[in-house]
Design goal:
Alpha-D-Glucose-1,6-Bisphosphate, Chain A, domain 3; TATA-Binding Protein; seven-stranded mixed beta sheet; magnesium ion binding; isomerase; phosphomannomutase activity; phosphoglucosamine mutase activity
């Protein structure tokens, strides 16, 4: 069992002993720290408001209740969106004039996990310094709770399914008419979480025929919820069987989007951002893009084709957003299927991604597979090494950087080594006790071989 405390929030497995897992006591402690942090940022404000929403995890209702009532105990008003998505909560925070937001979700982690994702008053993730401040507060447990007459209020708000969808439909580059006239037919895998509510509702507004697969929001994930090829055999088969135009797959909190082509092949989660960026950049000539160091070179190629500039950031949504703001980026995100479109908001949003992708396909008037084949072909291999307490990750990374110092080495986040035809990125995960090993090359065989080579080199260092 595991509890991971990082600047991006707290994530852990349900059950077990306190401080080792995400128990009710740990949930209350970190909700208290977040509430104390938000209050400290608004010392002269009479009442603080925080928006709370959750995915459909089995533990979600329990954790949400603990978090909401802890905030109320601190004198904070809570607006509860109930079953929601990460981007929906991000959209709701500024619309509610709230002072922050908490999403109860462990994203792509299996069902035994849950987490508190923490937002600022803009509906954006906290930065590193703010995250550290909350961790320090949690460790000190120096909280001052409200007296009985000063307790916060609790209210439910079920309007944000419609509000979020309407916000997406109102985006200038979302061509609602073109999509409605295209008569698309798609299969949606909502992994039995809130994507099964939100994505079909969006598609209905766009006159897209929707065949639902695993769209019952009961938290019983029918497969590993990370939207990778090896987990998506059911939707691949159903897309072909139903003769659908393509398939849509989201993770439990709906901030990652993967596409399945009409022949059942993977469009590639790396290429979700590439396709959406191609569409946006084609209408905003010279626009800039950002993705993280673990993302495909294909985004760089497409950006330069349209006359823009591509920039890489450290991994993590907050780092991508910071770099996007610095470079006046028109679209960016992460190669794991996370689309960040500033015209909407600075957060990964699968609803926005679906609408932009549909607009692109409607204008191109080609099949999903033909669209995918029009982009530069890169192949990625995503691997990991499980960590144990005795493994010195810093030593591994320093050794690799030194060994390959004559190559193009970037150490802003782990170690990325760029070779002429391929690259590898090694970094310690913020969400799991693992070292992530991402490689990319001109063929799958080359990407896999590069990964195996470095895994063996790491094992030699550990030994």
């Amino acid at each position: 069992m595991t509890l991971i405390k990082s600047i991006s929030g707290i994530r852990g497995t349900i059950g077990g002993k306190t401080a080792d897992n995400l128990t009710p006591i740990d949930a209350v402690k970190f909700a208290s720290a977040y509430g104390a942090f938000i209050k400290s940022r608004n010392p002269n404000k009479e009442k603080i408001t925080v928006v709370v929403g959750r995915d459909a995890r089995i533990s979600g209702k329990m954790i949400s209740s603990l978090v909401a009532n802890t905030l109320i105990g601190l004198g904070i008003n809570v607006v509860d969106l109930g079953l929601s998505t990460t981007p929906t909560v991000e959209v709701a925070v500024p619309l509610e004039n709230a002072d922050g937001g908490i999403i109860l979700t462990a994203s792509h982690n299996p069902k035994q996990w849950n987490a508190l994702k923490l937002l600022n008053e803009k509906g954006e993730f906290l930065n590193g310094a703010e995250g550290e401040e909350i961790l320090t507060l949690a460790e000190s447990e120096d909280f001052s709770f409200a007296e009985v007459d000063d307790l916060g209020t609790y209210s439910k708000n079920k309007t944000y399914l419609h509000k979020h969808i309407q916000e997406v439909l109102n985006l200038e580059l979302v061509d609602v008419e073109a999509i409605q006239q295209a008569n698309f037919k798609v299969v949606v895998d909502g992994v039995n979480s809130t994507g099964g509510i939100f994505i079909p509702a969006l598609l209905k507004e766009l006159n897209v025929e929707c065949i639902e697969l695993y769209c019952t929001p009961n938290g019983q994930f029918p497969h590993n919820p990370e939207p990778l090829k090896e987990h998506l055999t059911d939707i691949s088969e159903l897309v072909v069987k139903e003769e659908a135009d393509f398939g849509i797959v989201v993770d439990p909190d709906v901030d990652r989007l993967a596409i399945v082509s009409e022949d059942g092949s993977m469009f590639g989660e790396e290429y979700t951002l590439v396709a959406c960026a191609d569409y946006v950049l084609g209408r905003l000539k010279g626009g800039n893009t950002v993705s993280n160091l673990s993302s495909s070179r294909a985004l760089r190629d497409v950006t330069e084709k349209h006359g823009g500039t591509y920039t890489a950031s450290a991994v993590g949504e907050v780092n991508v957003v910071i770099k996007m703001k610095e470079t006046n980026t028109v679209i960016g995100g992460e190669g794991n299927g996370g689309i960040i479109y500033p015209a909407s908001h600075y957060g990964r949003d699968s609803l926005v991604g679906v609408a932009l992708f549909l607009s692109h396909l409607a204008h191109q008037k080609v099949s999903c597979k033909t669209l995918r084949d029009s982009y530069p072909s890169y192949f990625m291999s995503k691997n990991k090494i499980q960590l144990t307490p005795e493994i010195d990750v810093d030593n591994i990374l320093e050794t690799m950087a030194s060994t390959y110092k004559n190559e193009d080495v970037n150490t802003i986040d782990g170690v990325k080594i760029d070779f002429a035809e391929e690259w590898i990125h090694l970094r310690k995960s913020n969400t799991e006790p693992i070292i992530r090993i991402y490689t990319e090359a001109k063929s799958q065989e080359a990407a896999d071989a590069l990964a195996v080579r470095f895994i063996n080199e790491i094992k030699e260092i550990i030994a």
